[in-house]
Prior knowledge:
Keywords: Membrane, Transmembrane, Transmembrane helix. The protein is an all-alpha fold. It contains 5 helices and no strands. It has one domain. About 80% of the residues lie in helices and about 0% in strands. Helix 2 packs antiparallel against helix 3 and helix 3 packs antiparallel against helix 4.
Amino acid sequence: MLLKIIAIFVTVPLLDLLVLLQVASYIGTLETIAIVILTGILGGSLAKMQGLKTLQKFREKTMLGETPSNPIMDGLMILLGAGLLLTPGFLTDIAGFLLLIPITRPILKKAISKYVNKKTKQGYIHIEKYP
Length: 131
């Protein structure tokens, strides 16, 4: 598992750098930098907007005495998406926007839940109830 994480942290930035260089060779360096800055600004405002909506849903669920599992999962995905958007590069920006956009988030959430359930059944993930 640790090797997979290390591979991701090495491979993704290299791929992002290659894509950035390729795009810069087609449209120019300044234009590429401008796009990276623009996606960062747009992503930051989208993350703030989605984060505030999710916080409101969290508060509503807790006020009703319900478990806020859906808003918690949304919040984690928004946080990860915002982090990816802070990383310069088109691949991480695409992944970040997919995590921030409310239309794509449920699809990703379903896939993550399916993966976690599978790993739990296989015994790789242990979930214990808190008293």
